[in-house]
Amino acid sequence: MQNIDNIIFDLGGVILTLDMPAAEKKFTALGVKNYNELFRGGNVSSFFKDYEIGAIDNTNFLNSLRELAGLPLSDEALTDAWNAMLGVFPEERIELLNRLREKYRLFLFSNTNAIHLDTFRKMYADAFKNAYFDDHFEKAYYSHLLGMRKPETDAYRRILQEQQLDPSRTLFIDDSLPNIEGAASAGLKGIHLKPGMTILDIGL
Predict the structure, then answer these.
(1) 20 to 30 A Cα–Cα from 158, which one of 68, 96, 152, 168?
(2) Three-state SS across 134-153?
(3) pTM of the entire structure?
(4) pLDDT value for 50
(5) How many percent of the chain have pLDDT more than 70?
(6) Structural domains present in the chain
């Protein structure tokens, strides 16, 4: 790709597949009713976002989740259901990352949380002979460790400044249009992966 030196990838829906119906199935099996209303509505946005920027810890998050569900569910059951949305790392996407490392500086920026981070790192190690997922990138930025999340403009600017990246020569790839718009506000070039698209479809 011409005029690009650096690529920042999103994780879920870009490198790692997501399986939201699996999470719904797990929570429903636990007795949670009205999953979509409870877990995708505005009433959960506050503590979800707090968790994604590291403002609350695992215990507080699970307690909030339990309160939202209105059921005396164990931490283990909640964690299992919460992790069910994490899919797989398709091998062809990982092979693409390996090829791109020879041409570009690669970074990751994911809105995520402590439970998911531990889980998908283990998933990756199990799938790829104990390899460490973060090694694909010069640095992997996770929102709960950064203290900021997409699509906040300052979050992108922090990464650009820390890594001394020229935004006009930096490509950001995400499956969320608001996140692409946030990146554009910081001067980055963006590619929005629409439903059905993968990173294999964009000519990298």
Answers:
(1) 96
(2) HHHCCEEEEHHHHCCCCCCH
(3) 0.94
(4) 94
(5) 97
(6) 6-18+88-201 (3.40.50.1000), 20-83 (1.10.150)
